[in-house]
C-alpha cells in the first residue's frame, strides 16, 4: 500500500478553479462604452407597467463557453427616462441630481447621444452571493 504525505492546512493555498470568472478584477477598471439604447422594461412602479430606460453597456469584458452556450460579461446599467401616465416616452431627466445626469457628467457627455464610445469606470458589487458589474459615478 502506498503512503501519502499529509500536509499542514496552513500550507494549502487557494487557486482559481477553471470555468469560473472573477468579475471582481474589473472593479475600478476603465472600459469603453459599447452600447447606449432606449428600451422598455417591466416595472411595478409605473401606471402602465412598462418603464422606458436608457440601457448603457460596456464592451465585452469576459466570455465563458462558446457557440450557443456563450456568455458575455459586461458592465451595464439602466437609467430611467421620463414618460407620461400612458407610458409615452417624453425624454430624459435634466436634474443635476438624477443618476443619468451624474453619470453623463462623470464621463463628460452633455446628452445621451454622446455616451457611446466614452470611457467609464466599472463598479463590481455583490448581491445575493453573485458579482455584478455596473458603472461608478
Defining traits:
137 residues; mainly beta
In short:
This protein has 137 residues and is mainly β. 7% of the residues lie in helices and 39% in strands.
Helicity level:
under 10%
Specify the number of helices: 1
Strand content: 35-45%
Average pLDDT: 89
Adjacency order of strands in the biggest sheet: 5-2-1-8-9
Q: Detail the poorly predicted runs.
A: none
Through-space gap between termini? 62 Å
Q: Based on DSSP secondary structure assignment, what is the total number of beta strands?
A: 9
Shape: elongated
The structure class reads mainly beta
> What is the radius of gyration computed over CA atoms, rounded to a whole number of angstroms?
21 Å
Count of separate structural domains: 1
Sequence of secondary-structure elements: EEEEEEEHEE
The largest pleated sheet is described as: 5 strands, antiparallel
Written description of the protein model:
By secondary structure, the chain is mainly β. It has one domain (22-135). The chain contains one helix and nine strands; from the N terminus they run βββββββαββ. It has one helix at residues 99-107, and strands spanning 30-42, 50-58, 62-64, 71-73, 76-80, 82-83, 89-91, 119-127, 130-135. Strands 5-2-1-8-9 form a five-stranded antiparallel beta sheet. The chain has a two-stranded antiparallel ribbon with strand order 3-4. A hairpin with a 5-residue loop joins strand 6 (82-83) and strand 7. The longest helix is centred in the last third of the chain and has 9 residues, at 99-107. The relative contact order is 0.21.
Write the layout of secondary structure elements.
Layout: E1 30-42, E2 50-58, E3 62-64, E4 71-73, E5 76-80, E6 82-83, E7 89-91, H1 99-107, E8 119-127, E9 130-135
Antiparallel strand pairs: 1-2, 1-8, 2-5, 3-4, 6-7, 8-9
Amino acid at each position: 500500500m502506498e503512503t501519502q504525505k499529509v500536509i499542514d492546512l496552513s500550507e494549502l493555498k487557494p487557486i482559481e478553479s477553471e470555468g469560473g470568472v472573477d468579475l471582481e478584477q474589473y472593479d475600478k477598471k476603465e472600459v469603453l462604452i459599447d452600447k447606449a439604447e432606449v428600451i422598455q422594461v417591466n416595472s411595478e412602479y409605473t401606471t402602465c407597467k412598462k418603464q422606458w430606460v436608457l440601457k448603457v453597456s460596456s464592451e465585452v469584458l469576459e466570455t465563458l463557453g462558446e457557440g450557443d452556450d456563450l456568455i458575455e460579461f459586461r458592465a451595464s446599467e439602466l437609467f430611467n427616462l421620463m414618460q407620461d401616465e400612458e407610458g409615452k416616452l417624453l425624454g430624459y431627466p435634466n436634474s443635476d441630481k438624477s443618476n443619468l445626469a451624474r453619470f453623463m457628467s462623470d464621463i463628460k457627455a452633455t446628452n445621451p447621444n454622446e455616451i457611446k464610445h466614452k470611457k467609464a469606470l466599472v463598479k463590481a458589487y455583490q448581491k445575493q452571493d453573485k458579482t455584478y458589474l455596473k458603472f461608478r459615478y
